[in-house]
Specification:
homodimer, 150 residues, mainly alpha, 7 helices, 3 strands, elongated, DNA-binding
Chain lengths: 150, 150
Amino acid sequence: MRFDQPPPEPLANALGFLLSWNGQRVAAHFAAALEPLGLRPQHFGVLRLLEAAPGATQNDLVGRSMIDPSTMVKVIDELEELGLAERRMDPADRRRRAVHLTAGGREAFARAMKVAAQTAEDALAPLDAGERDTLRRLLRKLAGLPEPQG
Amino acid sequence: MRFDQPPPEPLANALGFLLSWNGQRVAAHFAAALEPLGLRPQHFGVLRLLEAAPGATQNDLVGRSMIDPSTMVKVIDELEELGLAERRMDPADRRRRAVHLTAGGREAFARAMKVAAQTAEDALAPLDAGERDTLRRLLRKLAGLPEPQG
DNA sequence: TATTGTTATACTCTATAACTATA
DNA sequence: TATAGTTATAGAGTATAACAATA
């Protein structure tokens, strides 16, 4: 799929298409922005989870993400290779691996957060603050999520 | 990626995530609804183009879609195997293949359109008509597309 | 027997580049 | 030389199912 040209007009008025196209475009933009850091969106997602819940087991991470178990193994392998995370044995249950960020992992996450914020800012540039709020409210409603701090 | 569970809350407030997640969810829902017809979204897209422009060359179709040339060959191969489209020689330029819908192709397209409409209706059920218009306007603006019939 | 993590594998999707036949 | 279409191939990304270790 290419995002360097606008979609043909009749398609572009179909709400389903607009949703899907914008979503993929934003996701691709974010992935491209993350690439210079050597990270893919999945890495970012797992770093974010580990920042919030240090020592989470791999099963925890699977449950809190949308990544399946075998893919999670690979993602954590890669984070370890990059020196951003490490698996530690759980002495109470030797099947479990508690996953922790390293100092480098925390730094990488901070950098990636800035990239994410900048990416969002770029992607949303055409909309003003009020429009962004409206869009967020509509997309949450569409997804069946409750109103925020209602 | 799984869409059978809601996304974890902190993610779900990020506009970029909401866009991407809803977009992929809607696209996956549409693909699943099309599957009983033996079609994938790309097939639907090409059927739609052929309905609008019978006899389009494969290059035309590439230009009017977001499908690259080699993938287009495969998609049209499959439409021919399903008996929904056929390539015809262009006597004026024997490199060109004019692609036409068969009678079965027109019927399949009509059925697929109903599925698409029903899918859109399902996906958009949480939003009323005014909210849908607002969402369409915001997504078009986000994509840098002009206001419709402005 | 069930669970955690892992590995091996297969599958889907798509892009790249080389090739043909025409022009 | 350039273009339309095709083929072969390789790559990314992900899912499936079997497996080892531990509970």
